[in-house]
Amino acid sequence: MAQPPDVIVAPAIEMRGITKRYPGVVANDRIDLLVRPGEIHALLGENGAGKTTLMNVLYGLATPDEGQILLNGEPVRINGPADAISRGIDMVHQHFMLVPVLTVAENILLGLEPMAGPIFIDRSAARRRIIELGRQFGFEIDPDARVGSLSVGWQQRVEILKALYRNTRILVLDEPTAVLTPQETQEIFAVLRNLAAEGHSIIFISHKLYEVLEIADRITVIRRGRVVGERLPAETNEEDLAELMVGRGVELTIDRGTSHPGDVVLRVDALRVKDDRGNEVVRGVSLEIRAGEILGIAGVAGNGQDELVEALYGLRRPSGGSVTLRDAPVTGWSPRGMNEAGVGYVPADRQRFGLVLPFAVADNIVLTSYYRAPFAKGLLRNDEAIERAAVRSIGEFDVRTGSADAAVRTLSGGNQQKVVVAREFGRDTSLLILDQPTRGLDVGSIEFIHRQVIAKRDAGAAVLLVSAELDEVLEMADRIAVMYRGVIVAVMDGRTADKNDVGILMATGGQNRPEAGAAIMAP
Amino acid sequence: MDPFINGLYGIPILGLVFQLVGYIIMVVPPIAPLIMRAGAPLALGALCGVMCERSGVVNIAIEGTMLASAFTGWAVGVALGPYLGQTSSLPFGITPTLLIALAAALLMALLISGVHAWLSIAVKADQIISGTIINIAAFGLTGYLNTIISPFSPTSGGSFAAFVPPKAITDTPVVGWIVAMFLNQGPIAMSVIVLAVVLQILLFRSRWGLRTRAVGEHPRAVETAGVDVIRLRYRNVMAGGILAGLAGAFLSMEATNQFQAGMSGGRGFIALAAMILGRWTPIGAFGAAILFSTFAALGQVIGFNPPTGSLGDLVTQLPRQTWDALPYLVTIIILAGVVGRSIPPAADGQPYEREQTTA
Amino acid sequence: MTGKSRSLRDAVTRIARQAWLVGALPVVSIVAALVVGAVVILASELLLPDHAFDPTLPIASYLALLDGSFGHEAAIVNTLVSTTPLLLGGLAVAVGFKAGLFNIGAGGQFVMGALGAVAVGVAVSDAPPPIAIPIALAGGMLAGAAWGFIPGFLKAISGAHEVVTTIMLNYVAGFVLTWAVTGPLGVPQSPSPVTYAVGNAAYPILIGRNGHLGILVAAAAVVVMWWLLYRTTLGFEIRTVGANADAARYAGMRPRLLIILAMTMAGLLAGTAGAGVILGINHQMNSTFTTTVGFDSIAVALVARSNPLGVPFAALLFGAMRAGSGLMQIRAGIPVELIDVIQATILLFLVAGPAVQRLFRLTAARGGLVSPGSVEPPAPVEAPG
Predict the structure, then answer these.
(1) pTM of the model
(2) Is the ipTM value over 0.90, yes or no?
């Protein structure tokens, strides 16, 4: 619903001149934001532009150094989430604020428990209210289900219910669609439109241009901590928004060129893998990747992609099936064995697996090769050779660091990932396994890494690209395999694949295609 | 002896197991009150551990807290005894001296756990290092003061007396043993089972319990729901500390009436193992503590009342120290074998950063 | 001013600043702890009946402490002798920290090392010293290493937390000691339980009345551990496991094996300390053999921030206090446990210091004096995982 440009009612929220500094960075620089009642207001900006900080200020999680917040025209000071909630402001975070081991009801109640007496929680009243609220917005939810066992889409509904349970008038959603399929996204959009129609104000944080154009009544663009523009969807388009967001004309899609597939490098046959809890989450995956091609795996997070990749690199023992690398059986090989066989691996969680944060850049560059010549001679380290190699990699992969001796911890996210990429790409590899290689990075780093991947492919490497960002897979992959509940449900050409088709396959596995706008399925 | 039982005991190897079971059935019930007494400080320490770790703070300072409280209670009793007198007509031999001494012991525990909470929560120090510092300080300061005071051969401030249930009841098999185990106790040991049950109910049914469990798993989720994580953690660590202080008071004011340097004897650490074995639930921790004390009691009994038969031959061949070491060995075996895969609260031991540090 | 002298001055300033950054906190902590110790002494004076309050008692006590540790040649040698086990124990805890393990079991490993040394030493007591000494030392090292291996192995196979298992093993080591001295190793018909002496396996005295070979063994251990941790691939692997075990696995290292190795190495070092006390000082063992090495070693490693090159200095600090505490007790009547109090207070200030600084800076920043985060305070210690 569009709002008339002249505002008669007081704005639901007005933020004036908000400034927030962190050591070494000004996250928010005199930001103004105005949100009207019943409006879906999109906050558009790159990763690291300052959107999340601004919302943390609104939500009382961060204290602004300067600036003022007005709620319904009244200046207020928000002293923490409890204060924000009591004023009707609530937030659905990008990383869900849900406790997996607790039930849906317990998660929703937390902080605002209905009491039976001074000590105990009135559990039956809580249950009734939650079921009622769900129905009001069009879905049935089991209040006693454990949140950890729900799908991502359902967890998001729990988050929204949590806010509604608190009588929220202003709802902030931070990148709500990042982990959803296109269909789940549409379902959430329907819920949001319902909310706005009932007079709730919604702040929708995103860096996805087409989504913002679709859902928002008004768009504020932030770049490097500053507001760089405000637009109505009718007056703008993707190119205009992209330029505002990034600050220069950007190519929205990079040219992946043509691929010239050669011999089969990796052959996976009926692979089965169990997760940490012993559930089989990869249930018979078969695929082939040829030299000089990128195979993208699309799928909603948690459909076995992580376990598949870990099994391929030897971090997890397969419970069945086989893996063949250039006609040699490598099933169940160790990470070191795979590394020496010419496999490069960029793990999804770079800070947990890919890097040792307190160590120097140089040590991280030789993290998988420190024991080999020229970096070691027997048991002895060769610090000079390590330093030389590090300096070369830093130059080659444009890692912005003071020196090779600086701790990786001091680098920005993009440069940290470049250290991983420098290590894995900077040698002869016949197979590259990339798990979420650009997650959370700025546009410049994403572009850089994408070009490196294509260069590797053109040099004859086979590339396996796993990404929760469907757009990335669609842009990069020569062939796309869709993974659903531990199996590959479809393989298609990357250049002709239709986004909607892939989305439906990701969400349903392709068997029971739901009719448009049908009721949401139970988890 | 019954020929059938004799036959069972005669089976090679397996017979030894039967003999052991028979021996335990024979010797354990009469010492049930002793098991409870040995288990009380372990259970209180384990409950302290549950309260702290459920809210995400690792507390290995339980040992030091116990020791400092044991000393404080005893020392205050010694100081006040001559003035307030030590005769009592109240149940449990309660005197004003004892009550004030107990309060002082608990206050000391509150103070120490406050320091641990401050170091862990506000300073965000490594929680194991913080606990170690407290343990060293408690050991040093109590030893120092004890050495200074002991030359003046102070008299004791007295101790809580055990309630004695009627002999007619305690002589009944099974029921009598259970009654004796829980009721032939002083006030602190008697309260342990009550505390465990109450905590169990509160942890899983009350508002405090829900928030505590959530804070130990995902503190930011709790903060965003409008609950003050820092305050909740302070409260839990300090309330838990009082339980450890109660364990200390038990050592010097109920189990004995004196203080000895280092008298906590590793109970604070065994309590942690009991907490883990009990999977971070109050009832489980209580059960595990009783299991440990049963082994400890068994070790003692074997010393003066060894089994007979082929089991006895085997037992007497092992050095006496084997039985002394039994509870410690059992702790290790249980930690390594039984609970190797038990999962602690997800945020256990992690300091909570209130403001996000990333832009 | 010439460019050369300016660059020299810059270098001096830089080194001074570096020294301040590294050394200021420990120095301030030590001074603060001594003040706290003085307060404890004064307060405890009030507890004594029939004692005239003497406000200078803390000074007298500290002077006695200093005299007892550095006052004359014999005192200095004594200090070196008490430093030796702390140095080795400190290395044992530090190598654990480097591998992400908190080894509270140095005390038990120390006892087992002493027991191993006495058992083997008695057996080879008639062999020529050049043969007997290394064999007896190896016996102690192996016994300590075995006692360190157990918690490492248990952690690797089942995840049993080393903090609890090492403490339990400390108690078990005490029982093993009583059993050995009263049983298989004991001298029959002795009035009190005691073992035979180690004879030729005893360390030779190198300086003074009691400055034994163990001092050199400890010094060598510092060099070896530094070299191992920072100059070899094995050391790199151990440090990687300690800093990020998941990344180590990803990088093809074997964290479980490295955990076992690091704990065994820690046990070996602590065992060397125990062997040194037997072979260098006691020469035999009785059933009351007790030690404060376990917790002292943790203090040493924390003050040295787990750096092998810092360990000797920290060990010297606490070794001197232990050496001088006897004289302090005799002259000023101050119980030796005061050293534990001071030790704990030093650690408290070391850990809490940066936070206090941070608080102060934040307060100052609000007043507009300093911009927040302009100086990152150094981490108090390496966090063990």
Answers:
(1) 0.83
(2) no
